[in-house]
Amino acid sequence: MTPQEATAPRTGSTRTAEAVARRAAGHSLEGPFYTDPDFYDLDLAAVFARQWIFVAVDAELPEPGDRTTVDIGPYALLLVRDDQGDLRAFHNVCRHRGARLLDGDGGTTGNLVCGYHKWTYRTDGSLLHAPSQPDDFDRGRYGLKPVHVRSVGGLVFVCLAAQPPADFPEVAARIEPYLLPHGLRRAKVAARTDLVEEGNWKLVMENNRECYHCDGHPELLRTFFPTYGYTEENLPARLRPAHERRLRAEAEVHATYERLGLPYELIEELDDRVTGFRIQRAALDLAGESFTPDGRAACRRLLGDLPTPRLGHLALHLQPNSWFHVLGDHAITFSVLPLAPDRTLLRTTWLVHPQAEEGVDYDPGTLMSVWTATNAQDARLVARAQRGVAGPAYEPGPYAPSEYQVEAFCSWYIARLRSELHREEPHP
Questions:
Q1: Which CATH number characterizes residue 101's domain?
Q2: How many alpha carbons fall within 13 Å on the CB side of residue 31?
Q3: Membrane spanning segments where (predicted)?
């Protein structure tokens, strides 16, 4: 059975189409983009039902029978490692009368059994048993509906569309060499948090794409250089000392990358392709090893076969819903999933070496402290922005030069909406 097209309704009123058409480059989006249910429905159809969406890590499903669930807007999905060890994704909907097949975030199962009428499916999605059906019942017609799924260097993506974006294999081939030295496929989940932010999903993504507001992140700025997004031409005088430290740290860490054969060059194609992305290895401040108060490693066992923790961080950003920080000692993944026009789930996962022992090799509090604080601070900023864009006095304002990645995100997003609104064939 081939993956089936997500059955999102055709959306986009004249009002939404006009707002998309008049979007002013270099300025924030108009208020309805963040508040209007019509735009929320359009976002689900044009973005989340058509793009590759980051939803999990391989470490959540290390063995055959391991499974987890995730919701993308109205779409309930389940991921499972089949009996041959391959990753599978299905709509989490029983083919009998539509009951939710599995609940909960994770677990292990031999077969997938519906808790309503006990229809039972193999881990490859085929229907194994349907109680009390007639003799001529054809089980082959009622397997679970599959969804495209792919692991890239230990990061798991799904795509609800019948035809996923054609450029994703190229993007995967370009970012995997950056990820593979860290051995994320063999890592283990040390912690995971779910934070519901009181704002539109785009505000969550936009907030992450700039450091204009980074003065509000004192824990993060112990090691993360506040010069992110700035150039020599637009660097404020107050950031000059940090800039000079960054140049010295980069010279040292680039020499390490060269010696170890680690790719580190910036690749930035955020808004000129369907699968927009940005990837780069960059230095950290202080000890330069990890996101901790002194910059030293939070886990004694290093990821993969890396010989030193002083590697700065590998930063990866993928449109539309994810960003990642991969370090010598651990990795952090961030997945943004829409819940409502003004509510968004931010799922953060910390990965460590598979043999790292909690309380021996790492302390969860130390491991999680910087990004737990930063996420909470960002959530307050996103809620504040949501309240503002919902008011009658709001009108789009101009981006600063250091916010160029916010502009790139909005430009990429508007292109997806335009493509959906001008799609010739009807959306099933």
A1: 2.102.10.10
A2: 10
A3: none
